[in-house]
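Run log // design_07
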């Protein structure tokens, strides 16, 4: 069991700055997801914790111990990758147990005088059996990887990590090779497993839905920087900037450029009244009130007929361009003047493609971003 800490971590590959001063404190038993677009530095950050990359500067701690110069194999971590790298000629039992047989292990971690030793055959067997039961694959132990489905292979890879009983799990897109349905299922299993085993975990993914559902906290990354670290609720409800706001949530938040005139947000096509305290905060902090961006999630825009507090101050008249029925709600892509945005409205909506239509913005759920810094001025 362990905490993980990265302090002022910088990683440069020759001239290229990949991690630009990363700071994070991960608590014992916590599952933190590093999420962000491809190439932003997630895997590199994780590999610095693993010891597969040397940090250019900064400090990595595992269990309050500086591990900068500790080789990967001595960091007491176990990694699971997208590519399971199972040995094709070995059955599941041997694939899971291989790492245990191959090297000396500190068997009794609580005994200060204990020395690492090789496990006895029966000890390995017992650990493999237990891991197989946790993963619900005891019936597959004699099979070869080629006789397993993708999901089963993934479990074997997990089994290999579990038997090591590491201080920290490091998982880099471990579910990306699975189809969507299996991925969702394995996600739930993985969460259950992590809670059951209580092992501190860093999980890397580019998939924001995976991050939202798995993470105790999410570290949202872009351009080698943690833009925001917080619970799923925090990053969803209070994104610190336009990047986080746009990256988290599906369908994405709408962004509409405009300016502030008093308490009113004004575009070429419509205007909306902001709550007074919000407007005061924005005007005080904006670089330029003439250049701000309103952000609102599609689910916070409603058909006027079903809206709770419709008024001229929160209503926008639009033309419906696209209408998609998702069963639980209706997705609308709409247009007014040169402004396009999306809404998710009640299935009872009478909106039809090509017709004019009134939508209501939930003004308590909007965000205003600075036009130049892109910071959220409303939190
Ligand atoms: P992510 O996992 O978020 O997709 P990575 O951490 O793999 O991103 O990569 C971040 C950036 O670092 C990318 O631009 C990648 O090309 C670069 N990079 C990663 N590893 C190396 C390396 N060994 N040498 C040079 N550049 C690298
Ligand atoms: Mg990666």
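design_07 sequence
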């Amino acid at each position: 069991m362990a905490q993980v800490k990265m302090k002022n971590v910088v990683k440069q590959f020759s001239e290229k700055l990949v991690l630009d001063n990363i700071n994070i404190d991960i608590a014992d038993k916590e599952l933190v997801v590093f999420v962000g677009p491809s190439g932003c530095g997630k895997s590199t950050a994780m590999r610095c914790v693993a010891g597969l990359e040397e940090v250019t500067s900064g400090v990595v701690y595992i269990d309050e111990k500086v591990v900068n110069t500790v080789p990967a194999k001595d960091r007491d971590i176990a990694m699971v990758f997208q590519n399971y790298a199972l040995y094709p000629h070995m059955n599941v039992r041997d694939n899971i147990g291989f790492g245990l047989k191959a090297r000396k292990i500190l068997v009794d971690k609580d005994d200060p005088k204990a020395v690492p030793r090789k496990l006895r055959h029966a000890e390995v067997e017992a650990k493999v059996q237990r891991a197989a039961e946790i993963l619900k694959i005891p019936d597959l132990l004699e099979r070869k990887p080629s006789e397993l489905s993708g999901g089963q292979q993934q479990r074997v890879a997990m089994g290999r990590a579990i038997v090591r009983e590491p201080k920290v799990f490091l998982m880099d897109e471990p579910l990306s090779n699975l189809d969507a349905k299996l991925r969702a299922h394995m996600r739930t299993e993985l969460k259950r497993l992590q809670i059951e085993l209580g092992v501190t975990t860093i999980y890397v993914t580019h998939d924001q839905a995976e991050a939202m559902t798995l993470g105790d906290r999410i570290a949202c990354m872009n351009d080698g920087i943690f833009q925001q670290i917080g619970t799923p609720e925090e990053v969803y409800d209070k994104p610190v900037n336009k990047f986080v706001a746009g990256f988290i949530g599906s369908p994405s938040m709408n962004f509409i450029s405009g300016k502030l005139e008093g308490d009113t947000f004004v575009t070429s096509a419509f205007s909306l009244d902001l709550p007074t305290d919000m407007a005061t905060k924005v005007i005080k902090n904006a670089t330029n009130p003439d250049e701000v961006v309103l952000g609102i999630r599609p689910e916070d825009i409603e058909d006027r007929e079903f809206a709770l507090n419709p008024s001229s101050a929160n209503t926008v008249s639009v033309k419906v361009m696209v209408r998609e029925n998702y069963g639980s709600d209706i997705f609308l892509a709409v247009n007014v003047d040169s402004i396009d945005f999306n809404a998710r409205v009640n299935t009872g909506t009478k909106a039809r493609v090509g017709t004019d239509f009134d939508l209501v913005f939930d003004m308590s759920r909007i965000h205003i971003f600075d036009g130049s810094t892109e910071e959220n001025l409303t939190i």
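The radius of gyration is 25 Å.
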